Amino acid sequence: MEQRLVILGGGESGVGTAILGKKKGYDVFVSDFGKIKNNYKEVLGLHGIKWEEEKHTEDLILNADLVMKSPGIPDKSPMVKKLLEKGIQVISEIEFAIQYTKALTVGITGSNGKTTTTMLTYHLLKQGGVNVGLAGNIGKSFAWQVADDKHDVYVLELSSFQLDGIIDYKPHIAIITNISPDHLDRYDYDYGKYIAAKFRITENQTEEDFLIYDADDEAIGNWLKMNKTKAQLVPFSMTKTFENGAFATEENINININNEEFVMPQDKLALEGKHNVKNAMAASTVAQLLRIRKSTIRESLSDFQGVEHRLEKVLKIQNVQYVNDSKATNVNAAFYALDSMNTPTVWIVGGVDKGNDYAELMPLVREKVKAIICLGIDNKKIIDAFGDVVDEMIEAQSMTDAVKLAQRMSEKGDTVLLSPACASFDLFESYEDRGRQFKQAVQNL
Asked: Could you tell me the CATH superfamily of domain 4-91?
């Protein structure tokens, strides 16, 4: 009797899991409460996989032996509750796929910096000649790549939602870039639960595995004081030095692993800003552990192109620099963006607030921001927080308006920064859509 695999969510991770499940002999069914994109329907059809959209038919779901749910579906959703009540195992794509590959994985999580660190790690390993795949929250689904069986190493960007759905998965090398309050709506507004979710990345690691982490991060430090992991700890820091780990001095980043020393001048890094020094330390530590040549690491750190929608320089118009940081969907990410500004800044901010506390941005806003444009349906919280701090504050309902206003409010030598600190779903489809609309509006000026 074939085992029945039901997949909730017909997006990239769902379809990838369906293909791998089918290949491994499961009876597969995909159910999406929303619409499934046409290209995915075609792929499912080609593989002879049954699917439904805009509904969850209980009779076709509650007879599952195993369920993979997309990370976007909360544990509190009625269907997931029913499955758990029936004792049916609900896992993530990563947990399902890992059992079918012998590849080594590098798992990267954190509230911010994880995409940049993941892309940079992938870049370092690829340039170093490793047969490496990129998956998780980015790019082509991990399960899909495992079905095609292509890579020796995978670099995986893992959200806390993906980590919630793991049982046995363990990365050989784990990175926690940092932890700050985010997505608390999914964790009963309990920061402790969110922190615990992030640390699931290391819960199955053994003495042969490694945990790379930010030693300057308070939440990480507290967790490590109170809890144990078997993994070998490899810290990185801007302020402390380590015999085994990575650290920054005035000029350089230094990485000491197994008595091997790697040194690189900070001013040779392609990416600007203190947080990117940390991202570079984390990624280079992986490259060192996997024995990539030092000259290759240096070269790759200096030619890395960066990530779209993450402090991406768009255009300079009349000597005003426009910067797209649409990926900044929380306060901590906006903090990094403002911190890296060296000119007076017109800041475009707002969207769907995830329980944000804007207080920590106050010193940076006072120091760097000359004007604020609120781009959201409900901007009350932002206006209350910064109304008295900046010279000008104005609301916009569309990206075109926001960018035109920004042009009017800026003068030579300024920067216009889109760094919303909020989710995008009130006015846009996604942070990518928001970033693309910003770039389009700038190009139309």
From this structure: NAD(P)-binding Rossmann-like Domain (3.40.50.720)
